[in-house]
Amino acid sequence: MKKEHSEHRLLMSSVTEKKECSGKDKRHGGSSVTEKSPELAFQDAHTSSGEGMLSGTAEDIYDRTVTKLLEQEKKSVVKDSSEQVKSEERRLTKQMEGSKMETNHEICRNDLITFTASEQTCDLTAVNLSMNDSEVQKSRQWMSKEFLVEESGKSKCEVACFIKAPSTALENLKCKIVNDTSSLVVDDSEELVSNVISIECSDYEKTIPFPINIAIPFTSCFRGSYREIMVKLTDVNFQSHYLTPISLEGYQGKHKETFAEVKIYQLGVFSVLSCLKKETFTVPKVGLSQKLSMDCRISFCYHPETFSSPAPMQLKIQPVEPSLVSALKARYDMYHSVVSTSALVYVQHPSAQPFNRSVTITLPCPPNPEKKRQDETEHARAISATVKRVATVCHPRAVGASVRKNGENPSDTLKLLGHRNKEEGWKVFDDVIVQNARNGLVSFELNEHLESFVVIRLSLLLENTYLLLFAQALEKGLCSTMANVILYRKRENPYKIVVLLSASKELAGELQKLHEEGYFGPPEPTQQFPLREGEQVHFRFRGNIFASENGKDFGKVYRLIFHSQRKPRLELQIKEVDEFGNHSSPHYKGTAVFYKITREMITKKWEQPLLYGEYRHQSPLCKLALTLPKQEKLINRPRSTKRISSDSPEAIWDNLLYWLAEELAEDNTSLLALCLPVRRSVLQLVRLKCPDNLTHQIYELLCCWKKTLPRSADKQQLLSHYLRKSGRSDLSEELRFKWQNKVFT
């Protein structure tokens, strides 16, 4: 019985192995299998040829298995006596023949069921594979998609970015512009040059096949050799990573703009920044003389054995504008002896190896311009004096003795300031000797690592305390920009205003653009004040005027975020709070109050709400006064008492005065030439109100003059008199003709 059981187990394992092999072969095949009944399936298994899975039937499996079992049994019995073998063989043969039909039937039945189930499994697997193949093929197909986003407060859609990714991934990505959070993505010495965009996956169960490419449009007004374009990725925890663009192409699809394209491995908030260019190099043991690519005048000479092992170095250069030094000198008298400064150098030394030898550093530091002019004068005097001399032998000596190279004046003092780390702060290194080199260059030797340093040229000695204060003011000034707030209103519609932040150096250009759009003052722009990149200016309206962004929600707080290369701007609608207020004035009066919000005051949250009462204990940055003209109210009277009148005298005079202003403007008549008895302040106000339009200036002046007259005065006779006095008798006669004949158009 044990042998019979072992035979049965061998048979079943063989059938199972054959079934699994058949299933594998079928799955590797390209044809699909349809579901059939067990009888038909078994019949097909006998008749089919060429199919690997159907090549062996249940009977063939049984016969081969029984034969192997008999051979193994015979081999085991040979060890006994031949008689025992024969008797045992007869007994086994009879038993096998008796159970052959039952076993064969059971095996065939089990194999048919297994075969049918395998066939159904193969059918479903083939269908799933065909579906998966199409999805895989679709996921491998890369496409470029344009994401158009409607920014809050704007009706026009703009391109947020282009994304290149598999088509299945593009379906699950969503993009939006989040410029309200731009304060959270910039640091000092960084300038935002694009929208801040957020890219998320709409279906969190889907996985994005990273890496994918995104291209963000940006506009960089000025870059220079010290700056480069980088893409900054900020995650939900405000951890930032900088990505170097793989291209800065001017075309994406049909759009002609400058795009920064990067390869990304995660989603988040993206922004394009103009950053200080970073230069990286490694100092070997044998030493290195490195001239920086951004400015070849700056060099670092590392002597052999300066470091015990190769040391990587990272440098950034922040140039210092002479205008900044002049502004600091004008603001603080104690800095009057500062002539110029070198660029501010930032150095990162990751290995932190000590200096075995000193490093020679060369920097440009402009010479004293007054000494330069003095040297040029001495040079010219020396040449003229030498020409007059008869003895030409002394000529070379005279010139050589009189001429001094620029920047080598012994009265100038050079000081090195720097700090080892930000915690220690600035320090004056009196033990480091800074020497003048040729053509306005200075050099010195440094035997320790400094995170940042600068060289200051002085015309007179200055105490170290003032030098440290100057270094702090210089570093703070490099991170800030002088700016102004502009609040202008539409000339045709005084209820529509525009508020924007502008860098002071670009103020004239911004005012010209606003005039071309039809926006004018008053009020005039505010006084300039310093703002760092990403700092905010919040404002609200007080008095009898408030504003709305959409014409519905009035009385809110508004925000402008300063970025030196972007122009934050808001277009608002204003109206009076109380139509019966300011009853003693022909205008409604109000004030726009502005508050400065530093980056340290901004909470690190992606949602940035504007709260109305958070400025209660804060002094305002500046204020601008506003007025709104009162409109004449139309009174609906009963029909019995309704007055019927001809054209209003005011409308008649408005037409006449505007016609007269146009005639005078054609001859470029100046305001003073009109000889009208008005104050000089009225002339100044008219010029400020209409700076670029002489017709409007003359019209405003005539209106101001008319308002000063009593109601009983003969305006036509007086105006004709002043026109004759101004030498315009022709216009005086024409004015009299129009008034008498009632020609007012």
From TrEMBL:
Residues 1-57 are annotated as: Disordered. Gene3D superfamilies: 2.60.220.30, Death Domain, Fas. Residues 1-24 have a biased composition (Basic and acidic residues). Residues 657-736 form the Death domain. Coiled coil: none annotated. It holds the Pfam family Death. It comes from the Eukaryota. One of its GO terms (biological process) is signal transduction. InterPro entries: DEATH-like_dom_sf, Death_dom. This is Death domain containing 1. It comes from Falco tinnunculus (Common kestrel).
